Amino acid sequence: MNEINFIDNNIDDSEESIRRAFNFLLNHSRISEAFSKEEFKRVANYQNPKNFDTYFSKKFRHLLERAPNEKNKYLVAGGKRQLLSQIDLFLPKDIEAYVEPFVGGGALFFYLLPENAVLIDNNPVLINAYHVIKKSVDELIELLKLHKNEEEYYYTIRNVDRTKEFKKWSDVEKASRTIYLNKCCYNGLYRVNSKGQFNVPFGKYKNPNFCHEKNLRAVHEVLQNVEIIHDSFKKCVDYANENTFFYIDPPYIPLSKTSNFTSYTQENFTKENQIELKEVIDTLTSRGSKVMLSNSCHKSIMVLYEDYFINVVRAKRVINSKASKRGEIKEVLI
């Protein structure tokens, strides 16, 4: 069962504080579409915050059981796919411009398909793949068709970045390798060592679809009017204004000492980076931008963002190497 808990560190248990928190969601998110005016009036006037929270949670449980948006299903990928129905409730009512500074797999972008979008990521391998899909999809598809789902072949392709020859590869060849490795490696991870060399083992999947032509052509069409940038998250400040919505999905603060085993770039995302990101978000909001941040439900995140509305959601952990340790974990939408 999905669950959302509403947290606002700026409010106390008074009726006025509860009403103010609820009205914030009414005026700034799609939650208003889920409630009738009568329900708003009744819930916002609850005297007992515990009753308010109980009603609020029950209402969401019903809403989150709805079927997901089917129109973009074949486009949506990435780690946020399972949370889209929960994220959707907290999105702004209207999105004129969309900026995502940690685009990754772009699940929310492909779900929303905004007309005016900027996608940013500090991973040059990922950004190259997006550029190639946008500009050279036909050539890319032909190269993908040549790959094989064989373990020895996989390691040959994986380890080519250890050779001098790799520097001579074209952008299309490198993008083909990126997509192939993503589909055939263990759990679809993207992890590199300190030298920037891909080091995820073979996934041993029976029939991985590393040349999904229909999907690639659909993504190609969607990206035609999208600005794709290789840069740090700080670049997004250039686009800050009251008409822009920012979805920010950075590397999470690990919940345990052993959970931070994926590295999307050679440099780890440190605590100092998390603080710098908070400063960027403060700048965005000060300029009138609407911002949503995802992160782990960690005490340090709760403290760092104590001035913002925090919503706790549940997600399934699917990348743990031990199946017995995969299960629901708490994340936050801020």
3D architecture notes:
This protein is α/β, with parallel strands linked by helices and 334 residues long. The chain has a domain at 124-129 and 137-215: Adenine-specific Methyltransferase, domain 2 (Orthogonal Bundle). Helices cover 37% and strands 13% of the residues. It has twelve helices and eight strands. It has helices spanning 15-28, 37-44, 49-64, 84-89, 107-112, 124-135, 137-144, 151-158, 171-184, 213-222, 271-286, 299-304, and strands at residues 4-8, 97-100, 117-121, 226-230, 244-248, 290-296, 309-316, 328-333. An eight-stranded mixed β-sheet has the order 1-7-8-6-5-2-3-4, with helices on both faces. Residues 1-13, 46-55, 57-78 and 260-264 have low confidence and may be disordered.
Q: What is the succession of H and E elements? A: EHHHHEHEHHHHHEEHEHEE
- The DSSP helix count reads 12
CATH architecture verdict of the domain at 124-129 and 137-215: Orthogonal Bundle
> Major β-sheet, in short?
8 strands, mixed
Distance between the termini: 21 Å
Beta-strand content bin: 5-15%
Q: Which radius of gyration do the C-alpha atoms yield?
A: 21 Å
- What would you call the shape? globular
Q: CATH-wise, what's the superfamily of the domain at 124-129 and 137-215?
A: Adenine-specific Methyltransferase, Domain 2
CATH topology of the domain at 124-129 and 137-215: Adenine-specific Methyltransferase, domain 2
The tally of strands reads 8
Which bin fits the share of residues in helices? 25-40%
Family: Belongs to the N(4)/N(6)-methyltransferase family.
GO molecular function: S-adenosyl-L-methionine binding; sequence-specific DNA binding; site-specific DNA-methyltransferase (adenine-specific) activity
Catalytic activity: a 2'-deoxyadenosine in DNA + S-adenosyl-L-methionine = an N(6)-methyl-2'-deoxyadenosine in DNA + S-adenosyl-L-homocysteine + H(+)
Protein name: site-specific DNA-methyltransferase (adenine-specific)
